[in-house]
Amino acid sequence: MRPSYESARPLSVVIAMGLCLAAGPLAGQSGRTVTKLADGVYAIEHGRGEGGNTTVIIGDRQVFVVDGCFLPSAAREDIQQIRQWTNKPVTFLLNTHFHNDHNIGNRTYMEAFPALTIIAEVETKKDMDMFGPGSERREQEDLATLQQMAASGRNTDSTPLSADDMAKVKRVLPEHQATTDALKGLAFQSATLTFDHDFTIDLGGREVQVKFLGRANTNGDAVVYLPRERIVATGDIVVHPTPYVSDGYPTEWIQTLDKLGALDATTIVPGHGTIMHDKTYIYLLRDFFQSAVDQLNARLRRSRPAMFQSVDDVKGAIDLTPFRQRFAGNDKAVANQFDYMAQSFVKLVFEEASLR
């Protein structure tokens, strides 16, 4: 499934399209967290709007980076940090998937390390080539849409904005403005090497395995696995504290999570969110996805195929609230995030079923 860009989009979509709204400071603020995972292996969690997590793997000869984040300024800060850790060159940069918050920084890395090889799964490269070059234009369009909303008090479909929605628009406008300014004149850098089978790179005393475990959040999700250190960087196959489900392949995602869980890893670096040291959350995601798929299939068996129905016809038969406490605990903000995510996932599962 591909993201669509309709002219009349709901407020939540307009806000989410331009920014990675993970928990953290506003774009342009520091908000970085650097964690040493093992000798020569580090994870960088970026602030809000700066992009997904980056993993840095240093060998005796070369450096391998997983995901180049979003804002060029954040990528430059990461490169400065890497140069404090080592004088070895970044030779490989892997993009785990095509979402721009993981690869807009590619150009910054290429300028800093001209011999760099940027790696992506074959389908990821195709999607990057489709969506990457239009990033600056889409940011400008979304900013203009938000500015129009703020001025008119109306959504893109001309319905009045509620007080809460107007507050959201005003809150994210400065973030969109900062992002649009940061991407002016952007020359998108796509992958320079693609793969369709798992392979291994020896950085010198350190083995890095690049794997495609199956489709999940996108058509070409890749993971990076360090067998000796028992570390895996998952991209957006795993996002914490709730998954990113605006797009994807639900039934295949379940299988991919099972394969991910089968890796002998004790440290999991998600695409966004905090680093984990067991697989509890991976299996929570799998069980959540499986429950939604099973409940929808049960409803369809009692009625008729999804192609003859709408999501409104079936959504009442899918109850995901038993998972709310398991994801959110007593955190009200995460609970609200879960509610929105669960609604989005039901729609995604239904869309997949309607293609049968």
In brief, what are we looking at here?
This protein has 356 residues and is α/β, with parallel strands linked by helices. The chain has helices spanning 11-18, 72-85, 106-112, 122-131, 135-152, 163-182, 250-262, 280-302, 311-314, 324-328, 332-353; strands at residues 33-38, 41-45, 54-58, 63-66, 90-94, 117-121, 193-195, 199-202, 207-211, 223-226, 231-239, 267-272.
State the share of residues found in helices, binned by percent.
40-55%
Terminus-to-terminus distance: 13 Å
The helix-and-strand class reads alpha/beta
> What is the H level of CATH, i.e. the homologous superfamily of the largest domain?
Ribonuclease Z/Hydroxyacylglutathione hydrolase-like
Radius of gyration in whole Å, from Cα?
A: 20 Å
Total tally of structural domains? 2
**What is the subunit arrangement here?**
single chain
Which CATH architecture of the largest domain is right?
A: 4-Layer Sandwich
CATH topology of the largest domain: Metallo-beta-lactamase, Chain A
Mean pLDDT: 91
